[in-house]
Amino acid sequence: MDEINQIENDVMTMAGGHFTPAALGPEGFAAIRDRAREQPDAYLDAFERMFMGVRFNAELHAAIVPTVFLDQLRDVAPERVRALAASLLKQYDAVLVIYDQFPDKAMLDQQLPARTANYLIRLSEHRRELRRLLEEK
Q1: How far apart are CA 113 and CA 120, in angstroms?
Q2: pLDDT tens across 14-63, in order?
Q3: Number of neighbours of residue 62 by Cβ within 10 angstroms
Q4: Which residues have C-beta within 8 Å of that of residue 133, sequence separation ≥ 6?
Q5: N or C: which end of the chain has fewer CB atoms below 10 A?
Q6: Residues near 119 by Cβ (< 8 Å), separated by ≥ 6?
Q7: What are phi and psi of 106, to 5 degrees?
Q8: Burial status of residue 111 (CB atoms within 10 A of its CB: 0-12, 13-18, 19 or more)
Q9: Tally of CB atoms within 10 A around 51
């Protein structure tokens, strides 16, 4: 596997929602984490290329957990992580305009298709986590 494919696979694993020692085994988890921390710019570039800008897909973002990925690199590339988190937050805010205007979030599943309501709820949770990441020093 070439380096770019390895990095993209690692990024997908880290952001995919199961990036834990329990899911990957301690050695597998550490290997991916260590590769990312040794090359934070390459991993952050891959994340940006895969999930942001013109490639932003709200349904995909509802399925991934970007803050898990960003948290792993926050101390080795703090400014870049903050910039990506702020950019993602703007994209989430744009997608969640309708969600934010719903007075009773519990009624979402009655007003929207269940799949749409579920991904809006997940994006809202991710947005809350991005805000937390941006507020932390």
Answers
A1: 11
A2: 999 899 999 999 999 999 999 999 999 999 999 999 999 888 999 899 99
A3: 20
A4: 67, 70, 71, 74, 81, 82, 85
A5: C
A6: 58, 59, 62, 63
A7: -65, -20
A8: exposed
A9: 21
